[in-house]
Design goal:
The protein is of the alpha/beta class and 258 residues long. The protein has helices at 4-16, 38-45, 56-59, 92-102, 107-126, 148-154, 158-170, 193-199, 227-238; strands at residues 22-24, 31-33, 79-87, 140-143, 173-174, 179-181, 204-206, 215-223, 243-251.
């Protein structure tokens, strides 16, 4: 199986060619460059422009005193910021489901492009000449590792596939083996916020030297409570990482602060 990472890399490069070629939109089948027409792209990204805007820490495009996000106080202080391309709602959730459940790898460059655009937007607000997210050129990109069971069923890590493509778009180093799971556990779908936080305690470890003083971008597919990213960020911070950003394709719609 040693050839698999090379094949994934070759496949990812081929899929990136779609950015310059007209082809069928993944959602409406209209001929368009990039795999997603501007109307479908707007429909996906408009979820982040709803009436319930998130706060500056997780939206990145708002003034710090504009709104209060009910989800962010539960995130670890080790996380510099969380950036999402869109909310986990129709129609954007269809793209994620096609990648995770159907192995439709043509979604990878499209999703990575949406996420890279979001990172660029956060950068441009901070300073026009700054790099995406404000991270340095030496930052590493990694992904939350999948469980062994998920890898056996799917044969790939969706967050890893997007993370590899995102690292290339941002011009940063891809480090897929930076994180490992220490054990297997049951899924979190039916768990509440506190149960999720307890379930991921001690679940991840940093496996590579050299992370001390490094900026790290951690990629995941969907963020619900932030417990997974918080657990990963705490591990990286304990190893001496300078700054950790959480970058996710989608967040579950903001819960009420009341």
């Amino acid at each position: 199986m040693a050839y698999l990472p090379l094949w994934r890399e070759f496949q990812a490069r081929l899929l990136c060619v779609r950015d310059r070629l007209p082809m069928a939109c993944l959602m409406c089948r209209t001929r368009t460059p990039g795999g997603l027409c501007r109307y479908c792209r707007q429909a996906v990204c408009d979820s982040m422009a709803s009436a319930q805007r998130r706060c500056e820490r997780c939206d990145g495009l708002l003034a710090s005193d504009s709104v209060h996000c009910a989800d962010c106080p539960a995130l670890t202080p080790a996380l510099e910021r969380v950036v999402a391309a869109f909310d986990y709602a129709w129609p954007g959730d269809l793209l994620i489901q096609r990648l995770k459940r159907r192995g439709q790898f043509s979604c990878v460059p499209v999703l990575a492009g949406l996420l890279a655009a979001r990172c660029q937007a956060v950068r441009s607000l901070d300073a026009a000449a700054a790099p995406p997210l404000g991270v340095g050129a030496g930052a590493w990109v990694t992904a939350v590792p999948s469980s062994r069971r998920a890898l056996v069923v799917r044969g790939y890590n969706p967050a890893g596939e997007v993370g590899r493509a995102l690292a290339r778009r941002l011009g940063l180093e891809w480090r897929p083996e930076l994180l490992q799971r220490t054990r297997e556990r049951a899924g979190q779908t039916a768990l509440g916020r506190e149960a999720r936080r307890h379930a991921v305690r001690g679940l991840y470890r940093c496996t590579q030297a050299g992370v001390a003083g490094r900026e790290v971008v951690v990629v995941d597919d969907v963020m619900t409570t932030g417990s997974t990213l918080s657990a990963v960020a705490d591990v990286l911070k304990a190893q001496g990482a300078a700054k950790i950003w959480g970058v996710v394709l989608a967040r579950t719609p903001q819960r009420s602060s009341g």
